[in-house]
Amino acid sequence: MFKTVIEPFRIKVVEQIRMTTPEQRTALLAQAGYNTFSLRSEDVMIDLLTDSGTGAMSAEQWAGIMRGDESYAGSPSFYRFQDSIRQVMGFEHVIPTHQGRAAERILFGVTCAECDVVPNNSHFDTTRANIEYRGATALDLPCAELADMSSDYPFKGNMDVEALRTAFATYGADRIPLVMLTVTNNSGGGQPVSMANAREVAAVCREFGKPLYLDACRIAENAYLIKQREPGYAEKSVREIVREMCDLAEGCTMSAKKDAIVNMGGFLATRDSELARQERVLLILTEGFPTYGGLSGRDLEALAIGMQEGVDEDYLNYRITSTHYVGRHLRENGVPLLWPTGGHAIYLDAKRFAAHIPPQRLPGVSIANALYHAGGVRACEIGTLMFGHPDPATGEETVAARELVRLAIPRRTYTQSHMDYVIEVVLKVWEERASLPGYRIVEQAHYLRHFSARLEPIGQSPTA
């Protein structure tokens, strides 16, 4: 067996990267209000802001796009989309949406009321916002092992099952309309959830008569990591593992822009016929007719094909190996990060990386800006800017549980040399970490403030 794991694809079309200088990037950061979300993508050399919708579609997907049928109702493209999801996941009712957050909005719009509580291993930003918009509480119940960033524990994405039982005892089952499990656990560092943990969570849900829903946007990567790390699964296929996890749940939401490798699209799936009827009513009001749901026929075709390609084990081996390669090299050079690596991203531990910057001064933002200035690499803060908020009584910033910087790797987009370059850029910022400044927020929105906030450095320049 050879040591090198090659990309299991050939490059057919290329897109030029515009090279920029540190001096140019100094001005561009200031214009963007020191928020990497506000940078123009053409000014970014390696874009690791998100893996959502940024992957490269295959020749088969592009061929499927040409077959897309744009009939308003009853398009054959919808039925191919529906059949593909049923085949992989087994859910009877499949409701297309333009992306995952639309599926979340519909699910919580039908199931959640004011003062409800929705437990999760860790809610991601849009999930949390859609729950809170309903006046409900998004409750995070990560496992205790996640607190140790450096240990080798293989399933730090797990839910704390005893904490889930405590939540039912504290709030009462009447206030908990459903339980969610995010696979992989994105806010928890892209860490996988074990099948054993999913079974335990499902058992608690059955005990209290509440449905379990999966946030399944990275379920194929989660399944591959189960195959690698969980006893009893080495000989099972990724398809079998995905189906086994789905069989534990009543339904799922999915941003197909991740593991289905499309640029746009998502869906909501359930086994509950009555719930599906209510969800389709809301879908028609806000997204579109149930057989297109805000997507074109060509989007539905690409998604149907991507669902099959996303569980291909040669592709997943390359992807997981590439992510681990970056994480291993950074760790060997002393860079603090969440270990072991997950599937879609490297998560730098900003608390240890920039230990001189307190959480209220946004160390993750500082590191993300420094990565862009040093090498044109765009990353995403997952910390106090994303999940903190001003205390209504005191105005003091409530800090996040973890301060992370996510380097999310798009699917089938960058090569080995791109990843080597990313390693070099991170190491340069690590070497110069003592000069990183803190940041303050000068403008923010009430919901999802990290998307549009404007900031300014405190003390040293971010380019020092």
Give a quick rundown of the structure.
The chain is of the alpha/beta class. It is built from 16 helices and 16 strands.
**How many strands, what sense, and barrel or not for the largest sheet?**
5 strands, mixed
Q: In CATH, what is the class of the largest domain?
A: Alpha Beta
CATH fold-type name of the largest domain: Aspartate Aminotransferase, domain 2
- The whole-number mean of residue pLDDT values reads 95
Query: Uncertain segments of ≥5 residues (pLDDT<50)?
Result: none
The total of helices stands at 16
Write up this protein.
With 464 residues, the chain is of the alpha/beta class. It has 2 domains: 22-51 and 312-458, Aspartate Aminotransferase, domain 1 (Alpha-Beta Complex); 59-309, Aspartate Aminotransferase, domain 2, CATH 3.40.640.10. Helices cover 39% and strands 14% of the residues. The protein has helices spanning 22-31, 59-67, 76-89, 100-111, 125-133, 161-171, 195-208, 219-229, 238-246, 273-286, 297-309, 313-332, 350-353, 363-375, 384-387, 416-431, and strands at residues 46-47, 93-97, 117-120, 137-140, 179-182, 212-215, 251-255, 266-270, 345-349, 377-378, 380-382, 389-390, 397-398, 404-408, 438-443, 454-458. It has a 5-stranded mixed sheet, sandwiched between helices. Strands 9-14-11 form a 3-stranded antiparallel sheet. Helix 4 packs across helix 10, helix 12 runs parallel beside helix 16 and helix 14 (363-375) packs across helix 16 (416-431). The longest helix is centred in the last third of the chain and has 20 residues, at 313-332.
